[in-house]
């Protein structure tokens, strides 16, 4: 019986090659898109699941309770020792501190590398295996390091580098004692060189200390708990630590345990917003759904052509269930071929997909048992859903009407359903187009909008550690003499897109207690405000360079103090980090963080001890020459350090890198949705034209022209698109309004977005319809009238 079903199914598919090709092509795109999205979601769901006892591993975080709750994925440097020695909850506790772009010397070659300093138990908590697991390797001793195979090959040109050495920051020789297997992409760890924690004291005294005065984002603390621990009880016990070790602090700490499985998805602590995965999953369903709708529409339309075949089979004793399963087999054959082609397309697209999302998916991913399960379930569901309704329609055809040729399309069924499905297709397409327009507008607004400071043609360079004030002043003077260099400022960080962030408590107007909010410190010299073109609202900038006696603040700072006007804060004292200063000016708010976050209260203060970067504004038309001369002077000043720079506008744009990736996918999938929808419309219009070819001939004989015939065939689809526009508009508005809630500063959803989406869908559909309609209308009417 199955063999007979397959044979008949194959013959039927061969008889209708065009419609079969349309169905296969549409389903192939749907399957391929769904598979890529499945691999993307699976990758994110697999983060750090490869560690043994991963359910017992936690990161220790801090909630800072001031006037609001600030979530930070770190704890004070002294927390780990206390948690290890004063409590019995943990089996292992370890700190890790990431330091970016440190200098290492290998032979005569210098490299800038991100390096993590780890305590010994870190690699006992986590399973990052060594290449040679038999070696008893430890980095408990100072000046020892572990390195990944990939990084070893990159730096040394070989993988076996045990015993090799490199010089850290020009003064410490470090020996490599072990080589780690390459780290998977699906892990929180993003460095490939690990050095003993004892060496951190030469890089960061605060991070390597056992202090409790503050936190820093580069430090993280992990623990593996003993079995059967109560997390709530542990967090309750930790409430006593701030009272004991931070009795005078006004920013109250509450320490929390975050499960390892939650790190990648907790947006409060810098993780991925899980809504993105939900959105991508929905898009995958949309695309495969649109392709299935095409299949259903074309199949139900073709039921009329197969009516005599069905009538004969029923008269000869064919049962409804046999006819139903016959059609389901045909659907399965098409779906299977499309799924296999979709898998091939997925394999070909993987390199581009990996490059776009910085993944490591390989062809082997398509042979994973989980992928095979997904493939089987998707194929089964699509085959059943796409084939069951057309199968039921065909099975219920009345044989008498079919054999007498009196069966019309209403008798064959499916007309109303087709219209509903076509409206659904168009609605999805319109929603995706609106989403693309809104996302594109918001990202453009964030990157190119008014940030409140100058970001064009500004070069940012890191200041080497322990640089003397006199050296900085001399360097600044030499750089200012370069043709093409317009302005220079020494600073802690740039106004926005900064890699250095520093929040601090402070006392205002000689109060003994700190204010209930932190201020973001932006240390900068006398030229900081001028170089970044930050407008002053009132007061003045600094009169003296690098003397910590004056400070200027932003409007947000004044707002947080509930001052009656910006002038009220002028002349008031502000004690910050042990320095008592006077507020001499208020500058206009600028976006120091992404548009998803509120502008911070900011204080700019001149203090040479806090400078970490040099900002140089150059004439962009003469940038190449200027940068060459800057490199020469820099190398003469810091001959042990690598000259490296970044343009500030690039740094700002990097903040929205993930959004730009999602925008690209939004555009891609919107285009695919429209393409698949138009493919289905093409198949339907081809069917309707063949059905009404004689009518077209009669209309031409009676005087109708091509324009009238095109309008005749287009009007029904135009009505369906307008209905889809009415349905999709409130849905699209609600979805994008919810998405924009993630941005504190956001663009508006314009009414014309919906008009553009509807008109674009309308134009593409009319173009699709026009091709076959005009072709039929230009056919000789004599030939049309001879056609039955």
UniProtKB/TrEMBL annotation:
Residues 282-399, 668-779 form the ABC3 transporter permease C-terminal domain. InterPro entries: ABC3_permease_C, MacB_PCD, Macrolide_Exporter_MacB. The lineage of its organism: Bacteria, Pseudomonadati, Bacteroidota, Flavobacteriia, Flavobacteriales. The chain crosses the membrane at residues 21-41, 276-298, 323-352, 372-399, 420-439, 668-689, 710-736, 751-774. Keywords: Cell membrane, Membrane, Transmembrane, Transmembrane helix. One of its GO terms (molecular function) is transmembrane transporter activity. Its main location: membrane. This is ABC transporter permease. Residues 20-238, 428-619 form the MacB-like periplasmic core domain. GO terms for cellular component: plasma membrane. It is a multi-pass membrane protein. It is found in: Cell membrane. PANTHER family: ABC-TYPE MACROLIDE FAMILY EXPORT SYSTEM PERMEASE COMPONENT 2 (PTHR30572:SF18), MEMBRANE COMPONENT OF TRANSPORTER-RELATED (PTHR30572).
């Amino acid at each position: 019986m199955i063999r007979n079903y397959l044979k008949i199914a194959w013959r039927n598919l061969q008889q209708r090659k065009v419609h079969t090709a349309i169905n296969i092509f549409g389903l192939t795109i749907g399957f391929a898109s769904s598979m890529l999205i499945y691999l993307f979601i699976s990758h994110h769901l697999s983060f750090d699941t490869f560690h043994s006892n991963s359910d017992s591993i936690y990161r220790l975080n801090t909630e800072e309770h001031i006037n609001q709750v600030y979530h930070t994925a770190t704890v004070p440097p002294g927390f780990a020792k206390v948690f290890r020695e004063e409590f019995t909850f943990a089996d292992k506790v370890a700190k890790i501190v990431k330091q970016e772009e440190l200098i290492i010397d290998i032979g005569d070659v210098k490299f800038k590398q991100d390096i993590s300093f780890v305590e010994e138990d870190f690699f006992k908590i986590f399973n990052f295996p060594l290449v040679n697991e038999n070696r008893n390797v430890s980095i408990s001793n100072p000046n020892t390091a572990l390195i990944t195979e990939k990084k070893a090959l990159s730096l040394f040109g070989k993988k076996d580098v045990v015993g090799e050495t490199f010089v850290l920051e020009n003064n410490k020789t470090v020996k490599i004692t072990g080589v780690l297997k390459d780290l998977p992409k699906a892990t929180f760890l993003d460095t490939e060189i690990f050095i003993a924690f004892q060496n951190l004291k030469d890089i960061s005294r605060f991070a390597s200390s056992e202090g409790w005065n503050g936190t820093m984002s580069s430090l993280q603390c992990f623990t593996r708990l003993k079995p059967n621990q109560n997390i709530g009880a542990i967090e309750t016990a930790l409430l006593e630590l701030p009272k004991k070790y931070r009795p005078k602090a006004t920013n109250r700490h509450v320490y929390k345990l975050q499960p390892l499985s939650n790190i990648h998805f907790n947006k409060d602590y810098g993780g991925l917003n899980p809504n993105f995965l939900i959105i991508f999953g929905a898009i995958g369903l949309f695309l495969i759904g649109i392709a299935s709708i095409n299949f259903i529409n074309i199949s139900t339309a073709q039921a009329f052509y197969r009516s005599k075949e069905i009538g004969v089979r029923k008269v000869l004793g064919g049962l409804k269930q046999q006819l139903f399963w016959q059609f389901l087999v045909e659907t399965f054959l098409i779906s299977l071929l499309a799924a296999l082609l979709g898998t091939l397309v997925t394999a070909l697209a993987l390199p581009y997909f990996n490059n776009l999302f910085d993944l490591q998916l390989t062809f082997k991913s398509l042979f994973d048992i989980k992928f095979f399960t997904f493939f089987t379930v998707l194929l089964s569901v699509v085959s059943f859903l796409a084939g069951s309704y057309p199968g039921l329609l065909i099975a219920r055809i009345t044989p008498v009407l079919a054999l007498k040729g009196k069966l019309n399309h209403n008798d064959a069924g499916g007309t109303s359903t087709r219209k509903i499905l076509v409206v659904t297709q168009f609605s999805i397409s319109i929603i995706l187009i609106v989403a693309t327009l809104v996302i594109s507008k918001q990202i453009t607004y964030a990157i190119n909008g008014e940030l409140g400071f100058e970001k064009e043609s500004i070069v940012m360079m890191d200041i080497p550690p322990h640089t003397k004030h006199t050296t900085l002043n001399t360097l600044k003077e030499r750089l200012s003499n370069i043709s093409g260099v317009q302005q220079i400022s020494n600073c802690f960080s740039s106004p926005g897109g900064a890699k250095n962030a520093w929040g601090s408590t402070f006392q205002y107007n000689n109060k003994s207690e700190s204010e209930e909010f932190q201020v973001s410190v932006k240390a900068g010299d006398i030229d900081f405000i001028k170089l970044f073109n930050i407008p002053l609202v009132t007061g003045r900038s600094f009169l003296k360079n690098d003397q910590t006696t004056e400070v200027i603040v932003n409007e947000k700072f004044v707002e947080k103090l509930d001052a009656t006007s910006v002038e009220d804060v002028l002349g008031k004292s502000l004690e910050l980090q042990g320095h008592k200063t006077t507020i001499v000016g208020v500058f206009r708010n600028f976006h120091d963080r992404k548009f998803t976050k509120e502008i911070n209260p900011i204080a700019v203060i001149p203090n040479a001890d806090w400078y970490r970067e040099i900002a140089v504004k150059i004439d962009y038309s003469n940038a190449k020459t200027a940068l060459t001369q800057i490199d020469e002077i820099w190398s003469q000043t810091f001959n042990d350090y690598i000259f490296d720079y970044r343009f500030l506008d690039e740094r700002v744009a990097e903040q929205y890198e993930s959004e730009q990736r999602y925008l690209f996918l939004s555009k891609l999938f919107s285009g695919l949705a429209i393409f698949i929808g138009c493919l289905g419309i093409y198949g339907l219009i081809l069917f309707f034209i063949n059905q009404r070819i004689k009518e077209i001939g009669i209309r031409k004989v009676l005087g109708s022209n091509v324009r009238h015939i095109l309008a005749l065939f287009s009007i029904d689809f135009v009505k369906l698109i307008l209905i889809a526009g009415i349905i999709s508009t409130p849905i699209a508005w609600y979805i994008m309004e919810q998405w924009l809630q993630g941005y504190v500063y956001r663009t508006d959803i314009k009414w014309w977005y919906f008009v553009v989406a509807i008109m674009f869908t309308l134009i593409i559909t009319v173009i699709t319809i026009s091709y076959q309609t005009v072709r039929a209308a230009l056919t000789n009417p004599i030939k049309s009238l001879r056609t039955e």
